[in-house]
Amino acid sequence: MISPPWERQRLEEIIFWTSAGLSLTCALLAIWLEQYWLVGLPALPLAVYQFVIQPRFYFWLLLALLPLSVEFYLGSVGTDLPTEPLMLLLSFYFIIHALYYWRNYASSFYRHPISLILIAHLSWLCFSSLFSEGPLVSLKFCLAKFWYVLPFFFLAGRLLDDRKRVRRMVWLIFIPLLFVAVQTLVRHASFSFSFADQFRTMSPFMRNHVNYAAMLAAFAPWLAFLIWRQPQKRWLWAAAAVWLIAVYFSYTRAAYVSLFLAGGSWWIIRRGWIKPLLLLGLVGLIGGSLYLLRNNKYLEYAPNFETTIAHDRFDNLISATYKLEDISTMERAYRWVAAGHMVPYHPWTGWGPGNFIFFYEGHTVRSFATYVSDNPERSGIHNYLLMTLVEQGFPGLVLMLALLLGPLFYGQRAYLRKYKKYKTQASDALREELAILMAAILSVVIIDAFLLINDLLETDKIGALFFLNLAIIVNFSRSMPQRHLEV
Fold first, then answer.
1. Whether the Cβ atoms of residue 408 and residue 279 lie closer than 8 Å to each other
2. Could you tell me which residues come within 8 angstroms of residue 352 by beta carbon, excluding any fewer than 6 positions away?
3. Which residues pair with 326 in a beta bridge?
4. Which of 65, 103, 363, 421 has its CA 20 to 30 Å from the CA of residue 324?
5. Could you tell me which of 326, 307, 71 has the C-alpha nearest to residue 203?
6. How far is residue 8's CA from residue 3's CA, in Å, rounded to a whole number?
7. Is the pLDDT of residue 320 over 70?
8. What is the mean pLDDT of residues 242-259?
9. What is the pLDDT of residue 1?
């Protein structure tokens, strides 16, 4: 039965004045009590209603907020706002939805080798936590890992299952990230693009220049995808120019190298050479490690404490890097050496996820110490493979290598299979799928390169991109049947 117009008008007036009164009351209370979170209280019923009616909205909102999230500390506990609460909310929602509708989930997604590797990695993460030297730390690490993987891989696997939705994802991340880059460049210009003052320009959105440069670099293949789709849009070309300028003035060596590697990987993937080159890289990594360990050869590369310092000019930093006199590089070596001494104590299950920072000081070699070795920021090992080996043992390292390199291998295989199909029955849909696969693979290449000298997979910006890329590679490398159920 349709309500008369005067009744609907009366109802709208009641809702309006009730909302206005509640908003004003909460604003006055917030000022009086100095509890400013009360200002947002009237929005809570609307947020709950939106979550019940259309929970997918929060997934897309989470993507848009990734570049804008702010690191916030509640005492000694750090979190990313507003993204981490949203990740936790979506994780619980996915678990409940999966338990209730599990018969409708596409088994091909979960049986894909990348999905199986990720599930094995999570299982070993939990198992190694049982033998942890710091059980509470490992428990927190595992929980945080799950609320990254559940929304950005498993939920994304259901939502990023066609070309249109992938395009929506790219736009939702691209626009706010471009804003962050522009505001950083504008602020940096006021310091004459000084290398020493760059840390002043990216707050509150980025923790440091490495996180900033890593997100810009890892998203660059997706920006190339947007330009490939709409080359006539000049503003996208202008955005790409701004992007490259932002990467350059991030003064991050890993960003330059990773983008160069991505360019080479594009050529390699199209020729199907990923597998032999990955094997060659692994052989080189193992050979280099054995060379340094033989007769304690690594001790010959200990820095000079007096000359290994921080630098105010980027050209001096580059020069100091190859002379082994850059403090950030040699401080990494200091922690890597400590990690090497920790491995023999727990070679199979490790010291426990998240525990390196609490135990490494007793295993350091003082000849590698630098001016910042007291580590007041409690930063990590700056090498994700070594961190995994120390904290999860050799099985954990094998699974992590599979997780980092598997998407390159299976992504290339799917790309070549689709390309072969495209040559016989060309279509715009297949052509776009090829571009999507390539962008996701190259983004993983860039993130993998960063992880060799940084610990970024547990940050909301890089960790999210990594698992989103994995979900896209899995989806576009399998036959996706028509969905029986919307999330």
1. no
2. 128, 129, 131, 132, 133, 134, 135, 137, 138, 391
3. 309
4. 363
5. 71
6. 6
7. no
8. 94
9. 43
